[in-house]
Amino acid sequence: MSATSQQPLPVLAPEPDYLRAESGVWSWLGTKDHKRIALMFYVSVLLSLGLGGLFALALRTELLTPERTVMDAITYNRMFTLHGVVMVWLFLIPSIPTVFGNFVLPIMLGARDLAFPRLNLASFYLYVLGAVVTLGSLVAGGVDTGWTFYPPYANSTPLAVEPVVIGIFILGMSSIFTAINFIVTVHTLRAEGMTWMRMPLFVWAIYGTSIIMLLATPVLGLALLLVGLDHGLHLGLFDPGVGGDPVLFQHLFWFYSHPAVYIMILPAMGVISEVVPTFAQRRPSSYTLIAISTLGIAFVGFLTWGHHMFVAGMSEFDAGVFGILSMFVAIFSAIKVFTWTASLYRGSIHFNTPLLYFFGFLFLFTFGGMTGVAVATQSLDVHWHDTYFVVAHFHFIMVGGSLTAFLAAAHYWFPKMFGRMYSERMGLLSATAVFIGFNLTFLPQFLLGNAGMPRRYYSYPPEYQWLNVLSTGGAWLLGASLLVSLGHLVISLKWGEKAGPNPWHSRSFEWLTSSPPIQHNFPETPRLDYSPYDYTLSEEEAAARAAARGQEGPVPIGALETATLPSRTSPTDARLPRE
Amino acid sequence: MTGTMASHAGQMLADPAVTADGGWFNEALRRILFLPAQGTTLAADIDHLHYFVILTTMAGATLITILGGLLVFKYRRPSVDGGIQRERPAPKPPLWLEVMVISFLLGLFCLWWMIGFRQYVRIRVPPTDTMDVYVTAKQWMWKFAYPDGHHTIAKLYVPAGRPVKLIMTSRDVIHSFYVREFRVKQDVLPGRYTTLWFTAHTPGTYRILCAEYCGAGHSTMRGEVVVLSPADHTRWLSSGGEGAEPQPGRGWLPGRSGDRKTQAALQAPGLAGPSYVPPATVDEFNPREPLDPVLTGQLVAAEQGCLRCHTLDGTPHIGPTWAGLYRSVVPLAGGGTVVADEAYLTESMMDPLARLHAGYPPVMPTYFGILEPGQTAAIVELIKSLRDAHPPPAPAEPAIPIIPEGPGATGARRPSPAPSRGAETP
Known about the structure:
The structure holds two protein chains of two kinds. Chain A is mainly alpha-helical. Chain A contains 17 helices and no strands. In chain B, the strands form three sheets. In chain B, strands 3-2-1-5-8 form a five-stranded mixed sheet, with no helix packed on it. Classes of the chains: A mainly alpha, B alpha+beta.
């Protein structure tokens, strides 16, 4: 262990980076390196996003006209089912945790890897297996139940329900493996000096997400397995014809699927909580509030599932309880929104692509979230339930929130993951296009919902047509801008400028190591006994502290945040010596 | 009893203020937000909460984004590398501000919840003096049974100004009864009864939509609520559905007498809302002429929902097209063939699964007890009249290819060269 404490960490790293450390196909397929597994997940979830997006475009194209445009009703029904299944289970739920969580979480904690590297790899292969089995239903004839699998329709439909249900069950196992891994890692592998309240907020978000995954996914697996058994063996658990109860399934399903919404949005919030302090160059206006509200969402999110069933035949009392609990969840989200915005106050803000995505997120998530409160208002929900208003609402959260944050993360961590910078101009351009395309797609759907167009409609009354045409146009624009985003990132992989270890001048811990990180993340386990948002430290001071392992006793939290340090005058001083 | 209540409601209806509830402000917001007309006593109240919630939502999202934009502009860094001013301990918002903002929001949300919940209870709990109608949903139609024993399909006849309670169940999967103008929706479940109530205040025709996904025909599982003025409704009731001449609405079970009743049935529906042409409708029909059996058949087919699945021009759809069907050789699902004569056509209406046309899903409901003999005969006559209407050449594939059609299926449906024996039947 070196005592040359003034040496910043990445400078003398002799180890090759993780991309070059080993070569050959097997070095990827059999890797236990969390960074390589993250990249394999990256490719897989992007493929899923592309597939789900193609389904979405086909659906929107069909909806150009009130009657048949390009496909028949059954094909349409199969397609929206697969769009939902692919987007929810193959993209949104795994996306940020398995890609960016896998990549940066251990580095943020100062760990060499996740607690269970093999389990991590198993999680990836389960994901692939689950994806193949789920999509195998296409070969087996397709499923037209919708991603919600409501019985008794799901029992009566002659199509291939079983492969999808089994596929999702396997994907659920993959989620659980990932969740266990993250939870154990956070508990056991934090570097010296890192207390719970010094963890980066992204780690908090992934931790909260993992808890939900661990607790809710088994219920989904159970419920879907029962649907599969009901469908295949005619057990009649949910079939009223033989004494079953279809509403029971809805309870079980939403007991998972409402928390699943938070599985999708919490990591997105975590990304935003990293992006804002970095680009504002100041600490979040309240670290504690963001961390607490993360856990608050994870907890209260379990108690609100009934608001999906206000018109399904539940009692008025139940509806009232689920309604008020839904309001509380919204408060936690509101706290986060205010905290992020307040974090811009008296910052030193540089407007990069991730921050532009943050702005998109801010508007879309706030609007989407508040429409969520609106649909949790019972009397209004009676009109809106199962209309396009709900569709627009959850796409605002899922696409406007999660996908936007995914793109923010893709740009924000791009230099760290690949060691190169993307083109800022293309980034800003595509982010703007994504925002416009998104709004053009989904704002008309709010109006369609207000006008009363039910969802999952293959043909619709003609007065809804022009809004649908608008929405379809927006969908094409959105699809094109996503392609542009992908394209410019791929081009930057090869031709982008080389990035230094810390191009954003962040104080968060993943930027302490080189870009791309060396195979074992840090040459020596760093000592992380300061806040990742402590911008009173210069980058050198931060790096020096991180390297000062075993030098001094524990430093109390906050001691450095209040310390006055000499301010820097030369801008070049802020860079690491390596540049 | 019905009469007095109805006439009372009728006086209420004469007042235009009831329909234009809330004045121009309400009306302007309703149009801006694309909300349908307010067809019940509750709808206007619900919409007021709607305006409150949605306007706050839009204002909130816009304000927070503008605030963020202003902050970014004010505290922007001059250039990429220049002047990273490292902060001195970053300012925290004062505690009182945090507490105030959060309490305000919590208060706002709780207010929404309180109003919303009260209204929800009003939507859900029917008054005691309702007129009850039993509703049966099935893939993909609505059936309504009235207290006096009548029943109608797809059309629900109710009086204006009187609370109506629907007691609903489903024969197969979950459906959801939704009338936009009434702002009511209720899932209809198999194996249990759910209820829904409303008081429509304006005579007219309101579309029923199925809101819970129920399969291939989900989006065409439509119907209409025909709100009659109390006087019309009394007349409709006292005639037992026959001979009534409801002015805005339609008669029910038409085709028996073929006179002015059917004439009314063919008028465009809507007093309320945009005019709606059902997917399967009868056109080019002059109701002033006496009805012949074929025209009656068209009318019955449209009224009973046959045309939701069957087409008249050879277009592939959920059920076999009727064009060229008569006397064609039909391949059966269980193997073998049958000539589609009057007996087979009638059997298929009464017991559809007995000998199922190969290549089509077993989804047709029975019309036993629903179609009267005359109506059955009229439909058979209609199919016979379409004998020489050839299907359009080479449709690439059936519209609903649950099972691929057998190779000989299209050819087998061509009319046989044998002369028609059917002209003299039934």
